[in-house]
Amino acid sequence: MKYRIVFLVCLLCGQLLSAQNNMVAGQVNKLALALSAIDMLYVEKVDCNELVNSSISAMVGKLDPHSTYLTAQEVSKDRELLTGNFGGIGIQFNIIEDTLYVQQTIVDGPSEKVGILPGDRIVMADTLNITGKDITSEYIQSVLRGQKGTAVRLGVVRRGYSELLWFNVVRDDISVNSVDAYYMLTKKVGYISISSFSATTARELGSVLKDFKSKGMKTLILDLCNNGGGLLAAAVDVASQFLLKDQLIVYTQGRAYKRMNYICREDGIFSDGQVVVLINENSASASEIVAGAMQDWDRATIIGRRSFGKGLVQRPVPFDDDSELRLTIAHYYTPCGRSIQKPYGNGIDYYNDLSDRYFKGELESADSIHFSDSLKYKTLVKARTVYGGGGIMPDVFVPIDTTRTSNYYRSLTSKGIILSTIAGFMENNKDSYKKLYGNFDKFHNSFSVNKSGLMDYLETKALQAGVVKDSIMNESEMHYLEVQLKALVARSLFTLNHYYYELNQTNPIYVKALEETGVLKTK
User: Is 310 one of the annotated active-site residues of the chain?
Assistant: First the structure.
């Protein structure tokens, strides 16, 4: 087995480097000789598999932020996120600088339900410290995944909070859905939220678009906020549903990778109506492909905040043991030629870029964002100025909401009191509420958090959990809490779509979209 590993290393490298010079081939031989020497001569017995894995990981660690090496177990679990079901806590994550970084939460999954957010860093699982240089994805999966119904208590570091936040997460069967919410706002305006780009995304989206068009939809709000990306092919297929035949969606190009154009093959299902696309600082990769194509063709108004800035293409290089090298081979470019990839290397703190944006005021004011003149491009229809080199800059900027800061509200969310309160409240009232309201329209127009006694019930449950109302919530924060509670009741009585319908009212990016589409009249 040990010599087979050496042979496989040499064989694979030989195939990849057959056209390269003798100097590189010499380095391959050097690596194989070192492995053989360690195996045969080292004073203690070694695991050659582990040596090879760590060597490859160390090599790709010298490259870019997104090239990576995955073990066979990691490959299998990564594919589950896009194609299947599994038992776990419902997050997608990366290990960044020895810490688990939450890329996004699975909609309606265990983590999302208790309040874990994209950008959180999970550092504790029960009594285990899950940080450190030796932490692997495989180890994280073994700790966080488990049987449905079992619980794990997670300690979370969150931007803007000085103390560790704790969440009790009950594991569940995780179903990966792409289109997580959709509804008609008016007879002519529809809303669709896409949480990720998987093999089923385009099919799910197409089904909803056809249904909405049959109902008379003329305007669509497409929500890509907090969408961390996914499959390039899925992004191309999604963008194709809004563009015309032969329009360029994206192209990729690298040093050893010829330019490849991805073209819309036929007129899209919704290629003639008004489109508004919502993005924020956690919208990345495939989300940026869609938003960039729509912006470059002047097909949509982009609303929100500058996106993450991930424009690197990874190609899987499989090994015989089912492990995989995900190697960056190209950049992707929007139709007008923009690279969306933000800078990396040369001492740049790549994954703290979002925190840097926050502290520099870039999430609160568009005037704080500066682009070099060399990054200016023109859109392809109206010749508007757009920028590359660091995410998609929206056409309409919406500052982040920084009003939810009271200690009381933070304690309610970090201790999971809001969700536990709703569970208890609905256990006592669900049947009577179904009879009382009957349909969502009646609920939306009539239900009051305060009149129902839900707010008083929340304060009682908070006291029982040791959370005293020692600080006053501002008007905005109180309104958000009331809407959040009402949305959770709606989810219990009706569907996830109705939850989003209620909760979106407190999302400033969504509210701006309502103004842009005329659903909400500005004063």
Answer: yes
